[in-house]
C-alpha cells in the first residue's frame, strides 16, 4: 500500500545474494499505447503530477492488473526462442503457463493471458494471482509442485532456482524459457517483448510496450523544471538488523533517475548495489528524500523509528522527515505497473 506522506528489493534471488555479500523502460516503441495514462494526458503542470500520483495510488491500492484493451490474443505457435541459459526452446502450447517470477507473471496477465496461468511463485502478490497455487517455498522452486500443475510452458529468469529443480522440469519434457532479470527501466520493454514472443503473441507485446512507453513519458513530462533532489534508497529489515543503503545497480537507482532525481548513494560513490548504513555513509550521501519499501519502514516502527537510526536524523531527509514508501511487491517489480511508481515518485520527491 502507498502512503502519500512518507518502496521491494531487486529480483528476489539476486537481491538476497547481494545482501549476503554485503553482510558477510525507457526504451520502447513510439506511438499511442493500448490504454490511457492515469491522468489521461501529459500536461507537465504540478496539478497534473498530483493528479497522476493520486490516480496511480488508487490503482496500486486495488493491487490488480490492467490488461490490454480488446479481446485476449490467440497464441500463434509453435515458436522457437532464445533462452538466457544459452538454450533454444520450442514452445508448442501456451494453454497452461507457469511464470516463476512475479514481474513475469504481471506481464503475462497484462498481455491478456491470465486465464492460461496455472500457478505462481511467492513474488506474484497481485490479486489475480493470489488464488493460484504457489510452487515456491521461500524463494526456491519445488519441482514436484510445478509438475503437479501440468504446465505446457514455464517462464523463469536467471535468478530462479535451484538449478536441480529446473533440470527436473526440463527432464519431464516441459519447455523452460529463462529470461534476464529486469533491474532498470530499459529492461522492461525487452523482457515484455521476449515473453510475448515466447507465448506466440508478439503483437500484444508491442502494444503493451507502446502503452508503458507512453505512460512513462507522460510521468517524466511532469518533473518540475530545475528540481533535482538527492534520493537515497534504504533497504531495512529491523527485525533482522538489516540496514542498507542502495548504490549503483540497486535497482532503485534507475527509478530515481527516471523520476528526475539523483541517486544519493551512487553520487556518494557507492559502487555496490548495497552498502551497510553508517553515519559516515549517510553524511556523504546527504539525501533530501529517503525512498523505502513499506514493510521496511514498518519494520523500524515508521518514520519515528527511522530517524533514531544513527545518522538518519542528521540528513536533510531525516531533519525534514521526507520519506516516501511504496508497497514491496511493486516498487522494484519492473513490470507493467512501473509507470505508476514513476507517477508517484515524480509527485512525492520534488518539493512543491
Name its key features.
352 residues, alpha/beta, Rossmann fold, 2 domains, six-stranded mixed sheet, three-stranded parallel sheet, 16 helices, 41% helix, 14% strand
Explain what this protein looks like in three dimensions:
This protein is α/β, with parallel strands linked by helices and 352 residues long. It folds into 2 domains: 178 residues, Rossmann fold, CATH 3.40.50; 138 residues, 3-Layer(aba) Sandwich (Rossmann fold). The strands form 4 sheets. Strands 8, 9, 10, 11, 12 and 13 form a 6-stranded mixed beta sheet that branches. A 3-stranded parallel beta sheet has the order 3-6-7, with helices on both faces. A two-stranded antiparallel sheet has the order 1-2. The protein is globular and about 60 Å long. It starts with 11 loop residues before the first helix and ends with a helix.
Amino acid at each position: 500500500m502507498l502512503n502519500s506522506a512518507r518502496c521491494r528489493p531487486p529480483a528476489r534471488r539476486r537481491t538476497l545474494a547481494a545482501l549476503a555479500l554485503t553482510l558477510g523502460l525507457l526504451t520502447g516503441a513510439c506511438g499511442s499505447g493500448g490504454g490511457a495514462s492515469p491522468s489521461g494526458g501529459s500536461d507537465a503542470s504540478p496539478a497534473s503530477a498530483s493528479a497522476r500520483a493520486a490516480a496511480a495510488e488508487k490503482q496500486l491500492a486495488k493491487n490488480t492488473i490492467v490488461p490490454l484493451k480488446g479481446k485476449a490474443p490467440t497464441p500463434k505457435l509453435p515458436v522457437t526462442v532464445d533462452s538466457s541459459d544459452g538454450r533454444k526452446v520450442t514452445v508448442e502450447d501456451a494453454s497452461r503457463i507457469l511464470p516463476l517470477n512475479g514481474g513475469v507473471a504481471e506481464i503475462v496477465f497484462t498481455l491478456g493471458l491470465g486465464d492460461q496461468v496455472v500457478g505462481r511463485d511467492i513474488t506474484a502478490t497481485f490479486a489475480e494471482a493470489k488464488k493460484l497455487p504457489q510452487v515456491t517455498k521461500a524463494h526456491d522452486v519445488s519441482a514436484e509442485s510445478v509438475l503437479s500443475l501440468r504446465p505446457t510452458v514455464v517462464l523463469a529468469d536467471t535468478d530462479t532456482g535451484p538449478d536441480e529443480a529446473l533440470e527436473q522440469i526440463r527432464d519431464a519434457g516441459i519447455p523452460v524459457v529463462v529470461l534476464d532479470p529486469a533491474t532498470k527501466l530499459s529492461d522492461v520493454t525487452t523482457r515484455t517483448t521476449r515473453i510475448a514472443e515466447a507465448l506466440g503473441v508478439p503483437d500484444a507485446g508491442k502494444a503493451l510496450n507502446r502503452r508503458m512507453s507512453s505512460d512513462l513519458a507522460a510521468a517524466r513530462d511532469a518533473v518540475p523544471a530545475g528540481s533535482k533532489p538527492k534520493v537515497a534508497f534504504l533497504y531495512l529489515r529491523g527485525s533482522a538488523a538489516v540496514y542498507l543503503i542502495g548504490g549503483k545497480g540497486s535497482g532503485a537507482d534507475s527509478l530515481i533517475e527516471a523520476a528526475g532525481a539523483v541517486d544519493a548513494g551512487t553520487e556518494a560513490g557507492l559502487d555496490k548495489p548495497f552498502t551497510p548504513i553508517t553515519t559516515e555513509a549517510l553524511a556523504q550521501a546527504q539525501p533530501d528524500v529517503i525512498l523505502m519499501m513499506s514493510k521496511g519502514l514498518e519494520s523500524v516502527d515508521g518514520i519515528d523509528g527511522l530517524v533514531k537510526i544513527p545518522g538518519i536524523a542528521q540528513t536533510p531527509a531525516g531533519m525534514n522527515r521526507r520519506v516516501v514508501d511504496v508497497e514491496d511487491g511493486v516498487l522494484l517489480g519492473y513490470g507493467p505497473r512501473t509507470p505508476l511508481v514513476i507517477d508517484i515518485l515524480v509527485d512525492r520527491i520534488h518539493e512543491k
